[in-house]
Amino acid sequence: MTAAPRPAVLVLGGAGYIGSHVCKALARAGFMPVTYDNLSRGFANAVRWGPLEIGDIRDETRLGDALRTHAPIAAMHFAGMAYVGESVVDPLLYYDCNIAGVCAMTRALLRHGVEQLVFSSTCAVYGAQDSKPISEATPQAPINPYGFTKLAAERMLADAGRAHGLRSISLRYFNAAGADPDGEIGEQHDPETHAIPLAIEAALGLRATFSIFGDDFPTPDGTAVRDYVHVSDLADAHVLALRHLLQGGPSTAVNLGAERGVSVLEICAAIARVLGRAPLIDRQPRREGDPACLVADASRARMLLNWAPTRSDIDRIVSDAATWAKRRTPVALSA
Question: Is 146 a catalytic residue?
Fold first, then answer.
């Protein structure tokens, strides 16, 4: 007897860091992830668990072709610009991709009868908050174009739900980190801006120093505190969010975080424990707009999705990220 075909899920931006990990989780859960990506910031070698359709999220004709070909039961969105600093320097790029792109995508999905969407959002929609932990009831007051465009996209999807029946769940990540525990995929941003891979590269001698921006924050050790959540835990949450929608669950937004803060110096200490060597630190002034502390209240994700991170201990995150870094640069490490 021939096995029934796996239901397709269109993964926009599936060749990127989080999207590729979600594709692996979808395949493991019995779905066929169909990656739709223009490869401007994603990597074709990260597409391993389903077909790749090359196209831009803003190209409704090309997106329509992919939707007709694969007839997905739902879609997931990762095809956004996600660098805070770049959004300040080039805000129109972010408005074009993160707002106009989501609008084009939503029209195409509805035109082809796809009415379930898992949307990649961010804790940047909350801005700089004094409250901790941050819950979904915390006021949304983004302080940069990246956060504002994500908030605008969330509201666009909510309006499309009221007007056209789209059901969506917006997943507000705190700090995605780590790499696939099997070592198949991981972070490969160009340029890399995330603290953990930068600090690991410095400890491995792949860069001279690791810059700490601000050591005078009102935190226990003076460095900024963030909530780091393993990318594979995030991937599991996306599968649970998809099942929520497929079972008729309502549109909503949920935080995804480990619910514990880790300072920049604590990252360096974890790297020293895991690798046996610490990065050489270069202390720099604070960056404008950097909050002192961002920690999630993820209780809604626990209650609504039955999600609980299992890999988000900082040593586990660092270990998986370091394994990936070593695998990517064996020549440099042996020189």
Answer: yes
